[in-house]
């Protein structure tokens, strides 16, 4: 995939924030396993994502997952099974290595559309301590509402110009643009950008070059 570069970003980066369930973890495979096929898993997941992106103010994550399962014909048992198997989520192959490379240089955090309970479980699966973990339940809103991103910056004590967000979906770009938060897009899933989405600073199919990409932001 081609990258989209923006050389105007020169502020030194102090904080790297991540989407959790797509940018760092392969949650799609688990959803597909629970649903019984990759096609049904993606259909269920997209129904859930549509609900969260249109939700704004927080409603229980588990409720939205269950409603999406019912809407695509899977039934509420699928949502119960997904929660029961939540600890089976797997990081992308390079995710732990990249986080370990970043940790000596930057604060690290996640901003995730999830409940507190499931968000903490998922973050722990990376095996790397995060300085900031913000869930939609904690923030009171789902991404791409600006509040979750703003809360993460506030907790970290870092201004937007000194941070980078690594998105798993281009929908994050709607929220990060409002906050002034420079954003990379780790488009591992090969998702299409929605109409009107701002361009990311960089789009990559893996996290492998993330440390180099962040360091290059400060170069002219």
Model description:
With 220 residues, this protein is of the alpha/beta class. The chain has 2 domains: 15-25 and 89-216, Rossmann fold (3-Layer(aba) Sandwich), CATH 3.40.50.1000; 27-87, no CATH class. The protein is 43% helix and 14% strand. The protein contains 10 helices and 8 strands. It has helices at 27-35, 38-55, 61-71, 76-84, 95-102, 116-124, 136-139, 146-156, 172-179, 210-216, and strands at 15-18, 25-26, 90-91, 107-112, 132-135, 163-167, 183-186, 202-204. A 6-stranded parallel beta sheet has the order 5-4-1-6-7-8, sandwiched between helices. Strands 2-3 form a two-stranded antiparallel sheet. Helix 1 crosses helix 2 (38-55) and helix 3 (61-71) crosses helix 4. The two termini are 24 Å apart. Residues 1-9 have low confidence and may be disordered.
């Amino acid at each position: 995939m081609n990258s989209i570069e923006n050389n105007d970003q020169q502020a030194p980066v102090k904080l790297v924030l991540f989407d959790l369930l797509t940018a760092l973890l392969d949650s799609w495979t688990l959803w597909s396993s629970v649903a019984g096929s990759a096609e049904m898993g993606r259909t269920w997941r997209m129904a859930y994502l549509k609900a969260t992106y249109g939700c704004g103010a927080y409603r229980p994550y588990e409720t939205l997952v269950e409603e999406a399962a019912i809407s695509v014909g899977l039934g509420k048992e699928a949502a119960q099974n997904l929660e029961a198997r939540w600890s089976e989520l797997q990081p992308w192959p390079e995710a732990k290595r990249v986080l370990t490379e970043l940790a000596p240089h930057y604060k690290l955090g996640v901003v995730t559309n999830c409940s507190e309970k499931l968000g903490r479980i998922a973050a722990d699966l990376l095996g790397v301590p995060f300085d900031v973990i913000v869930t939609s339940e904690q923030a009171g809103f789902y991404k791409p509402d600006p509040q979750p991103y703003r809360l993460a910056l506030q907790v970290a004590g870092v201004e937007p110009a000194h941070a980078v967000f690594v998105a798993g979906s281009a929908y994050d770009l709607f929220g990060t643009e409002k906050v002034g938060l420079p954003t990379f897009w780790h488009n591992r899933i090969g998702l299409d950008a929605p109409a009107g989405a701002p361009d990311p600073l960089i789009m990559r199919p893996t996290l492998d070059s993330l440390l180099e990409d962040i360091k290059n932001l400060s170069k002219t």
